[in-house]
Amino acid sequence: MNQAAVAPSKVSGHTVLAFDFGARWIGVAVGDTETRIASPLGMFEAENAPRRLAEVEALLREWRPGRLLVGLPVAMDGGEHEMTRRARRFARQLEARFGLPVDLADERLSSASARETLREAGKGGRDHKHDVHALAAKIILQSYLDDAPRR
Questions:
Q1: If DSSP states are collapsed to H, E and C, what string results for 34-54?
Q2: What DSSP character marks residue 128?
Q3: 3-state DSSP call for residue 79?
Q4: How far apart are CA 83 and CA 73, in angstroms?
Q5: pLDDT tens for residues 7-28?
Q6: Cβ atoms < 10 Å from Cβ of 15
Q7: Selection from 140, 106, 112, 148 nearest residue 30 by Cα
Q8: Which of 42-51, 60-69, 104-113 has the highest mean pLDDT?
Q9: CA dist., res. 131 & res. 85, Å (int)
Q10: Is the Cβ–Cβ distance between 107 and 91 less than 8 Å?
Q11: Measured between alpha carbons, how far apart are the two ends of the chain, in Å?
């Protein structure tokens, strides 16, 4: 897992971990419901469930969130597809295994927005393709924090 730029000691007890679920990679971000600030953490391989859950468990031990957020990939018309079902399954696994509340958030265009943000910062192309996953998770989480009433 790529390491965070945010120190765990700076995160309050209102921590949310967000996941940008993908077939090969899962991007991760951390945020706080009080400050309403989200930061990208990194990403990890998503190809098998035991490894996915071990990565999440390590993140939970480090960050001690009170809630989890999973980006829900839906079609532009709002319809569901195979990745939507896989993300829902991932969210259910997290809730059952770790006993934390798990919210789902529409993630339409989050990856496209992340790629554009990286391009604007001069970080486009192959060298930064993995940065997209963590930044997409941050975009999903920031939108969630911005849109939600104080929790």
A1: CCCEEEEEEEEECCCHHHHHH
A2: G
A3: coil
A4: 6
A5: 444 434 589 999 999 888 999 9
A6: 19
A7: 140
A8: 60-69
A9: 24
A10: no
A11: 29
pLDDT surpasses 50 at 6: no
Tokens standing for 120?
A: 């604007």
CA dihedral sign, ordered 125, 126, 128, 130: positive
For tokens 């991760």, name the residue: 28
3-state secondary structure string across 56-107:
HHHHHHHHCCCEEEEEECCCCCCCCCHHHHHHHHHHHHHHHHHCCCEEEEEC
How many residues can be counted in the chain?
Answer: 151
Q: How far apart are CA 124 and CA 78, in angstroms?
A: 28
Amino acid symbol at 2: N
Provide the token pair at 99.
């006993």
Crossing angle for the helix pair 131-147 and 110-120, to the nearest 10 degrees: 120
Q: Which of 118, 129, 128, 141 is nearest to 63 (CA)?
A: 141
pLDDT digit string, tens, across residues 101-138: 999 998 865 555 555 655 666 665 555 556 778 888 99
Q: Which tokens sit at 47?
A: 């190809």
Determine the average pLDDT of the residues in 30-57. 92
3-state secondary structure of 91: helix
Asked whether 66 and 81 are in contact (CB, 8 A), the reply is no
Question: CB-side exposure of 91: number of CA atoms within 13 Å?
Answer: 22
